[in-house]
Amino acid sequence: MKIQNVCCIGAGYVGGPTMAVLALKNPDIKITVVDINKVRIAAWNDSDFNNLPIYEPGLKEVVQEARGRNLFFSTDVEKAIDEAEMIFISVNTPTKTYGKGKGMAADLKYIELSARQIAKVATTDKIVVEKSTLPVRTAQAIKNILDHTGNGVKFQILSNPEFLAEGTAVQDLLNPDRVLIGGEESEDGKEAIEALVNIYATWISREKILTTNVWSSELSKLVANAFLAQRVSSINAISELCEVTGADVSEVSKAIGMDSRIGPKFLQASVGFGGSCFQKDILNLVYIAKSYGLNEVADYWEQVIIMNDHQKNRFAENIVSKLYNTVSGKKITFFGWAFKKDTNDTRESAAIYVADALLDEQAEITVYDPKVSEERIYADLDYLNTRSPEENRRLVKIVNDPYIACQNAHAIAILTEWDEFKEFNWHKIYSSVIKPAFVFDGRKVLDGRTMKQLGFQYTAIGVSIFNSTS
Ligand SMILES: NC(=O)c1ccc[n+]([C@@H]2O[C@H](COP(=O)([O-])OP(=O)(O)OC[C@H]3O[C@@H](n4cnc5c(N)ncnc54)[C@H](O)[C@@H]3O)[C@@H](O)[C@H]2O)c1
């Protein structure tokens, strides 16, 4: 079966970049990305490509080439569903904030709404592709809704989880380690799988396209994120041990990472992982394990989250203790708010929680981040509901000049590993801050020796206080 018309529900961090690359590589397929968020769609259609709603290196160029040719962004969800032979569901699946499974299970209401809308509109057979990250066996629920509320047309459900990482989304999509497609083992299922394989095969070699049953595919995505996050929590646990023993976590990380059985990736100690996926996907895995009565399995994975929370807390506590046990009324400058470099996404960013802990101690915070907007930062703090929006605006200032951000600061905390921080004139910064000049490097982006030579009291995650050379 040759697909000519594709629709994607959800124009977010996954739907937007994924469909842009799919359109770039398949100029003969019409791809329409739809969303109920009018502002987001308007931004995707903005004539100035610098105003796209998502910042990713290389994304602007891809959208520039494909938009208007075979890539379209629209709020007309029903029309796009009706026209498409293949529909990707790429809506958000956040952690539930209410009812059964609150704080753990994935909230599937947007998935269910999408499935119901497809069922209502479809008058021809459709292949429905789960692009969102979903609990294992969700395809069954989607199929139930489609088969029982549809117009008698046939649906095939595929699972095609997305492995892109924000910040490198375009590169990851152009050159993925693998593409995973799960489908039914029936003849119709095989045909649907083949239709999707053909779309990817226009630029990805077939050996890298894995096909499995639906449940393996759904579960693999959760497990991949759990394994990645586990490595971060593992090295972060060791970073604390380094600090009290005189070992240096970068040296330990290099030494163990050169073991080919372990490998160097995801062994970078930091203030803790953030992002929209790791925490929610592990919590989801924990919830699934619990719901099958597998309590030891659940506890094992939950510890990854506990360790991550601990890492964020102890970073904030360390700032307070180094500043003579009080930050009340003191100005702390944050370099970075995004959960990692090269993205404007701030979901679950460590910066939010470190800020919250310091605000509890009555600190005043000034934030500089090259890509995150002022509205986003206030929205993140307001969402916590720890204090009133007015108080957040009184205690937190956002500036777009890093040198102004540092003036009269009692301490500088680095929360995101933006490359530009390395290039700052730290000598100039030193002269404008209150002495002693404290820098807390939560991402290990700066050179400790140079910072100390400049006069800073420099502390980095995983570097021992006994170790004066780095
Ligand atoms: N962000 C990542 O790095 C990443 C990576 C891999 C997988 N995922 C998974 O992909 C999914 C989407 O993540 P995201 O980061 O793109 O989320 P997102 O919040 O950026 O985007 C989701 C979009 O879906 C839209 N939407 C929700 N319900 C809708 C409906 N009924 N009709 C039309 N539009 C609707 C929302 O308005 C929003 O714009 C999640 O399941 C996530 O776990 C995310």
Q: How is the secondary structure organized here?
A:
Elements: E1 5-9, H1 15-25, E2 30-34, H2 38-44, H3 59-66, E3 71-74, H4 77-83, E4 86-89, H5 109-121, E5 126-130, H6 138-149, E6 155-159, H7 169-174, E7 179-183, H8 187-200, E8 209-213, H9 214-245, H10 249-257, H11 278-291, H12 295-322, E9 331-335, H13 350-360, E10 364-368, H14 374-384, H15 389-395, E11 396-398, H16 402-406, E12 411-414, H17 420-423, H18 426-432, E13 438-441, H19 448-454, E14 457-460
Parallel strand pairs: 1-2, 1-4, 2-3, 4-5, 5-6, 7-8, 9-10, 9-12, 10-11, 12-13, 13-14
Helix pairs in contact: 1-3, 5-6, 9-11, 9-12, 11-12, 12-13
Bound molecules: nicotinamide-adenine-dinucleotide.
The site of nicotinamide-adenine-dinucleotide has 27 residues, from α5.
Tell me what you see in this structure.
Keywords: NAD, Oxidoreductase. GO terms for molecular function: NAD binding; UDP-glucose 6-dehydrogenase activity. It is an enzyme of class 1 (oxidoreductase). It catalyses: UDP-alpha-D-glucose + 2 NAD(+) + H2O = UDP-alpha-D-glucuronate + 2 NADH + 3 H(+). The chain is built from 19 helices and 14 strands. By secondary structure, the protein is an alpha/beta fold. The protein has 2 domains: 200 residues, Rossmann fold, CATH 3.40.50.720; 235 residues, NAD(P)-binding Rossmann-like Domain (Rossmann fold, 3-Layer(aba) Sandwich), CATH 3.40.50.720. The strands form 3 sheets. Strands 3-2-1-4-5-6 form a 6-stranded parallel β-sheet, sandwiched between helices. Helix 9 packs parallel to helix 12 and helix 11 runs antiparallel to helix 12. Bound molecules: nicotinamide-adenine-dinucleotide. Nicotinamide-adenine-dinucleotide binds next to helix 5.
